[in-house]
Specification:
With 128 residues, the chain is mainly α. It has helices at residues 15-43, 50-74, 92-99, 103-106, 110-121. Helix 2 crosses helix 3.
Length: 128
């Protein structure tokens, strides 16, 4: 997947982008393992509570950072709507970027998920 970068040189992008993409790939694998653990717990008849909250927190943050990196890689092309003939991949990155801003609210706010992890996973007392 070697295409022209921002400078048009075709060198695969600058080192900062490469580092960010590598981190996102590693974190995606971490999330996959978290999901496998939750599925394994269900097969053993266990009910993951704080594990599910951890994966929800991690996935929402990962999606947000992935969309941000994608928009940075695409530059101004990432801002084009799906009706534009110049939009990359039918503007999926733009839609993802805009929708991920509210993803921490959809399945329960991130603060609630953090409280679940703190109380059930770490055994900390409930906030007053």
């Amino acid at each position: 997947m070697k295409e022209a970068g921002r400078s048009g040189t075709g060198d695969g992008g600058d080192q900062l982008i490469k580092d960010e993409l590598a981190e996102l790939v590693v974190e995606n694998e971490v999330l996959r393992m978290m999901c496998y653990r939750i599925a394994w717990m269900y097969t053993k008849g266990q009910h993951p509570s704080y594990e599910s909250s951890m994966s929800l927190l991690f996935s929402s943050d990962l999606l947000r950072r992935t969309a941000k990196t994608g928009m940075r890689v695409l530059g101004h092309y990432g801002e084009l709507g799906q009706d534009s003939r110049l939009a990359v991949a039918r503007a999926r990155m733009e839609r993802t970027y805009l929708s991920c801003l509210s993803i921490g609210v959809g399945g329960g706010t991130n603060e609630i998920q953090k409280n679940i992890v703190a109380m059930r996973g770490l055994g900390l007392p409930r906030q007053q």
